[in-house]
Amino acid sequence: MTAPGPVPVELPTSSSARLIVAECFGVETPTFQGEGPSCGHPALFIRLSRCNLTCAPCDTKYTWDWTQFDPRQESTKRSVADLVAWAASSPVELVVVTGGEPLIQQRHLPHLVDGLLGAGKRIEFETNGTIAPDPALLIDGVRFNVSPKLNSFGVDESQSLHPAVLEAFASSGRATFKFVASTAADLDRIAELAQAYGLAPVWVMPEGTTAEAITATTRTLADAVAARHWHFTTRLHVLAFADARGR
Fold first, then answer.
1. Which has the minimum average pLDDT: 193-197, 223-227, 240-244?
2. b vs e for 212-222, b when ≥16 Cβ sit within 10 Å of the residue's Cβ?
3. For residue 75, is it within any domain?
4. For a tag on the chain, would you pick the N or C end, based on fewer CB atoms within 10 A?
């Protein structure tokens, strides 16, 4: 299967660029980055709508599952200027651009990145690793938390794993690879992928949407993750805020 490449470079003017947004949070009610290398850091979130995968355990189905949610109620179009002004109103440095799958809309993202960097922010994109990043996004102040989805996460790997895209992220030097896992078999599969495509650093995150489930899965995986000398991350927003939306 041919991996999807970057969207062509022709960009709208910054004043006309608009993004389909599910929600923004972290200004009015402060919160943290809940996962990965920046877990525990104060953060603002811009959650873009739409996704190209249909993972069964997904906890943000309101960004793509229109059998359960109404896109007219769950998303709005907002200008880049409006989003930058919203983020700039907070002293928090880290802005997490997530989804859904944010790189679906990456034609407009260089303008967002430029505005946020100009406002003194640093940026993390949360991506499923199926769409290669536009070179305009591979700049200082921008990082990618790439979360390839395994069969065990309720999605066919023929759809969720694109070798050329994973290799592009790995070679960028700006990516961390964060895998959701629940069993030792998941760790074996992660090791295969890391070796095949040069994925590093590897972070493992226990699957679960309750504190009890995360704790149980953490105890199942911790020794094996440590033995592989990988990083381990929890899901702080679930532990702290019971997976409440907008936290």
1. 240-244
2. eebeebbeebe
3. yes
4. N
> Over the stretch 147-170, which tens digit does the pLDDT of each residue have?
999 999 999 999 999 999 999 999
- Tens of pLDDT, residue by residue over 27-59, are 999 999 999 999 999 999 999 999 999 999 999
For residue 27, which amino acid is it?
V
Which residues constitute the domain of residue 23? 18-176
The answer to the question of residue 6 being in a domain is no
Average pLDDT (225-242) is 95
Which amino acid, 231? H
Residue 9 has pLDDT above 70, yes or no: no
Q: Are 151 and 127 in contact (CB under 8 A)?
A: no
Cα–Cα distance for residue pair 155/134, rounded to 1 Å:
25
The upper half-sphere exposure of residue 99, i.e. CA atoms within 13 Å in the direction of its Cβ, equals 27
For residue 227, tell me if it sits in a domain: no
- Domains in the chain: how many in total? 1
Lookup result for tokens 């996004």: 137
pTM: predicted TM-score of the whole model, two decimal places: 0.92
In angstroms, the Cα distances linking 73 to 19, 22, 27, 46, 77 are 15, 9, 22, 17, 12
With respect to residue 98, please indicate whether it lies within any of the assigned structural domains: yes
Asked if 103 and 68 touch (Cβ cutoff 8 Å), the reply is: no
